[in-house]
Amino acid sequence: MMSFLDAQDIITARRTYNEGLTQQVDSRRAAWFPLVLLATLLALPALQFVGNYNYVIHLILYTACYVVMAAGWNILGGFAGYVSLGHNVFFAIGGYFAGMILARYGISTIAMAPLAGLVAGIAGYLIGLITLRVRGPSFIISSLALVMIFRILFENWHFIGGAAGVALPANELSVKWTKLPYYYAFIIMAAFALWVTYRIRHSKFGLGLRAISKDEIKAESAGIDTRFYKVLAFAISAFFVGMAGAVWGEYLTYIRPNIFLVILVSVNMVLMCIIGGKGTIAGPVVGAVLIIAFNEVFVATLGASEINVLATGLVMMLTLIFFPLGVVGTLAKHNRLPRILNWD
């Protein structure tokens, strides 16, 4: 029979091994890179003093907006494994909530973004209580139905402008600086979203979500409250998408159902996570950069036509053929992930 001292030695050896493994993982992680990237992005608008870089600022702003949404979607779709194609509903809820307050009371959507996110999160929690009763293809279909229901509702709700929408007042800054408030808002929200997803991934809650993704029945039998975990993940995910929608509406200076409630918005969130690496921290960032870069290059060279859409689709298909787990996931699996992309 194993003595108490032998058991203690084994426990100590295992703890030492785990600590060594953690140190090895940490040695492969460039924790400084996200901070340097954030500092660079925050300083980038200084280029406006030496020229007009509005196009560059718009591209980064647009990418950061999708990083916020993709990182939020990743909590549900990447960690918990529930693929939702209806998350643009929360994009619309956040956009309309903050947009209507701006139109009627003049309060900036940037200031209202956290509250708009909270409203979207509450809506996500309530919707999740219903839709998360099913899983797999049934859940995907229910998320698509959600978009159709809200599209009909918003187009026939005259208080919020119906199908015509509502025009929002533009800020009073000059053309050269008018994008800056939204630029900084999206950069800060993206950094916050990535930090939250990192904290979730390394928490008991995140471990439970990954267990649900692997095998929900076994996770439940192991004592995990799978229903609560899923609904909470849905709500947190909706919170970030709602915040992005709030600021995006003011940036465009109008809100309309055909801006928020189109399937392409949700598809982009999903594709960014899948191409970048679903369930990873850096995946949504890599996916957002790649997809937006592909679109911009092909629009510039091929024009806004079906050929551009075809070329973008082919590149994404080839990417998934060679990177089946996404860029970050596949490289990590083969131990070829650059340190600057190891944010997990």
Structure report:
- Helix content is 73%, strand content 1%.
- With 344 residues, the chain is mainly α.
- Mean pLDDT is 88; it is low at 1-25.
- It starts with a helix and ends in an 11-residue tail after the last helix.
- It is built from 15 helices and 2 strands.
- A two-stranded antiparallel ribbon has the order 1-2.
- The chain has a domain at 51-261.
- Helix 3 packs antiparallel against helix 10 and helix 3 (54-79) crosses helix 12.
- It is globular.
User: Mind telling me the C-alpha Rg?
Assistant: 22 Å
SS strand fraction:
under 5%
| Strand order in the largest sheet | 1-2
Q: What's the average pLDDT? A: 88
Distance between the termini: 41 Å
The major sheet is characterized as: 2 strands, antiparallel
Range of helix content: over 70%
Residue windows where pLDDT falls under 50 for at least 5 positions: 1-25
Helix segment tally: 15
Secondary-structure element order, as H and E? Answer: HHHHHHEHHHHEHHHHH
Shape descriptor reads globular
Number of strands: 2
Q: Strand pairing plus helix content: what structural class?
A: mainly alpha
